[in-house]
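Sharing a chain and its predicted structure for anyone who wants a worked example. Both blocks are below, sequence first, tokens second.
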Amino acid sequence: MNLHPSLTLQKIRFRLRRFIETRRINNSLKKDKLNDENRREIKSKISQLSYKPLISIVMPVYNVDEKWLRLCIESVTNQLYENWEFCIADDYSPSPHIRRILAEYQTKDSRFKIVFRTENGHISAASNSALELATGEFTALLDHDDELTEDALFEVIKQLNEIPNADFIYSDQDKIDENQQRSEPVFKPNWNEHLFYSMNYLNHLSVYRTEILRKIGGFKLGFEGSQDYDLALRFIEQIDETHIKHIPKILYHWRAISGSLALDSDEKSYAHELAHKALREHFERKNTKAKVEKGFLNYRRVIYNLPESITFEVISAESFADIKSNSDVVILVEKNIEAVDSTAFTELTRFAIQENIGAVGGKILNKDSTIDNCGIINGEFINRGFPRDFAGNLSIGRVIQNVDAVCGVLAIRRELFEKFGKGAKNLIELCNVLRAENYQIVFTPYAEFIET
């Protein structure tokens, strides 16, 4: 890595961190490849499992190239966990090779269940046709040109043996190109409600409890392009969030070829518009008063309604025990920090008044406008040292999301502060107390503060 001597310290720091992150990602992609010894170990573990439910893999197919279809199918037939059924619906593809290939595999393996639709109904209708074939206790979704890792279903079953009440399981993912080269791994957090509102970070691999899929009616027509997002929103409305489990391992390769959303998120702009619609309908079903607008890139920004009667007070916090306020929301600000503009306090208040949110904070900038933090996750100050507009993994510096803690500035409802805040030593400790009481901590990038 060559660095020009004229680079500022800020740029040197930025490039160094990007270099380190790239090395970490490349090493991660290399390490997760299975060898024969790994396969033998996994098969031995499978034989010892007490719970081996049938998994239905649901896949709509339409006019995909033979090469990608075969690679996709073989990623299923190569699964180390073998108690699966492959439920495929061809959406009246005009290309004759589709029927030929599907019939070929069905002849070789009785676990293939295939329906050939007599009219083209697009992805939601085709997915429902495939779902009708499913008899498994759980349903995994697969696109017709993507690939599963060999151990994908094993990892899901292993999770279910550890946590049998799980209703929804998702994994990390990456992209795979026309030359089978992998890139852009996405390392996802555990269930993060507000990040999911900002984007469909769950995406692939997603595995659902089948009976709940049937209860909500499967895929909804009219949401083609964002049908998975709408499905997940309706699904999570039916379950306890503790039944949503994340497997921190790449189990799914998303095909990045011309015309795919994986290659260019602008390929299907209508999909983003429908995602906004799906989220608005979700809030309507929950009776949550909020607007959904376009945020960073094609992601979503939730703007909760703020009644005119709500009041807030900004307090420079020294001793929490001495703080007294009559306002609905108390905004605690550490020394030498001020808002970039007055809307920051209003933004925080919108979130602070939500019933399940304990505290909310914004983006804290250093004097030189680099990032001090975008909240704290797993003890790490998010995006610290990077430029003001840096996004990072999953764009976490530019979207609303749940975090473990916030610092610098924190907004909290007065009754929560009086109940939990008086004994806290600092903002981070207060966040920890709130999380222990099952309140969410939220970061919003739309409230910026800077050290003076």
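Comments welcome. The first strand starts at residue 55 and ends at 61.
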